Amino acid sequence: MNFDKIIVIGSGVSGLTTALTLQLLGYETVIYTDKEAGQISDKNAHPEFASLFPAASVIPHSFYSDQLKELFRTSQSFFYELRKRFFSGLSIHRHFEIFEFEQDEPEYRNWMLDFHPVMELSPQEIPRRSCSQNLYGWAFNCIFADWPRYFPALTACYKQSGGHINRRTVRTEDLPTLPADILVNCSGTGSLELFDDPLDEQLVMRGHLLHKPGAPLIIGAGGNIISYNYTPKASVYSDPSGEACDVYCYPREDGWMLGGSRETGYLSSPTTEFSKKNAESYQIGGLAIPSAIIDINKDILETTYHQSLRPSDELYPFIGYRYVRNKEEGLRLDHETMYGKTVYHNYGHGGAGATLSWGCALDLASRITSKNKPRLQELLLEEFEHIL
Question: What is the pTM of this model?
Fold first, then answer.
């Protein structure tokens, strides 16, 4: 076993998963972070901490990289293996992606289990608004990580395996003296404060979410838990650029996660300006939430699933960021030498941080260990047998 020390910067899902992977493969790891998700009560005070907000389905949404297929399929495979081992919070959802206009099937259509276009589905099972007529899209089965259960279990596994979390702020001037020859940068939007990034513009997407606690799981005719993304025509709901925008509902054991919106901004100092659209909104918890998130979801939930949603319900609003970085090649998964250390970068996952967490962790582990990913996955699963 190799007991070289590695410091991972960042305690979000990418940092935690990468640190756990390396720890189980025999490295001594420590996470340096200025905040931990489990110790934050006001999520809206930290919209940049993406791991506070996932629903989270294992689907490659809002992610840009020519490595998408390999990383996603590796990650998807590992999630299924963890579910076989009864890892906390992992289930299977029957997920629908529905449009009120014709839409090309996605690149990932061949990667999802039991994928079927709308034309092959029973009309009764398709999410729809009361006025819906022609609908397009598809459905598939996917892994769902119930975040209030999955993320704490991931943290517990890391600590049980011998990993440590060091609460401290890392600054650029600290990097030369950090006590490890290998650093893994999983600090997300914080990366720009620590390291030079080769891209001039850094794209971030802001989105509104609502949590309805106590709402039941939505069960389909086949006994499957149902979730959906639904995109009406742009004349009904659009983003600030005028493109049709989707709403969604992801049922969890603690209620529904509802969204969404997509406001574009670029990371800058000291503030980030986001594109906005003057749209109708509801004031919920002191935040302006686009009314379409409630109104369209309300119509779908009542029409298709006979479930109730009202603005007057107990709803908790959130606003979080997706760090897209760049729509041509957003993911930064590479390494460089600084101050005599090797720095591995793992950030820019867009809306797919949870989805790609195991794929990216195994990719970095392969680079560090010089072993192929299938062999590393075998070794990792063997180690999980001891802690699950």
Answer: 0.95
Who contacts 57 (Cβ-Cβ below 8 Å, separation ≥6)?
A: 93, 95, 142, 143, 144, 145, 227, 250, 355
Which tokens go with 239?
């983003």
The count of structural domains within the chain is 1
Instruction: Measure the CA–CA gap between 46 and 36, rounded to whole angstroms.
Output: 11
pLDDT tens series, the chain, 388 aa:
334 899 999 999 999 999 999 999 999 999 999 999 989 989 999 999 999 999 889 999 888 889 999 999 999 999 999 999 999 999 999 999 999 999 999 999 999 999 999 999 999 999 999 999 899 999 999 999 999 999 999 999 999 999 999 999 999 999 999 999 999 999 999 999 999 998 888 999 999 999 999 999 999 988 899 999 999 999 999 998 899 999 999 999 999 999 989 999 988 755 677 887 767 899 999 999 999 999 999 999 999 999 999 999 999 999 999 999 998 889 999 999 999 999 999 999 999 999 999 999 999 999 999 999 999 999 999 999 988 8
CATH number at residue 258: 3.40.50.720
* Residue 285 belongs to domain spanning: 5-387
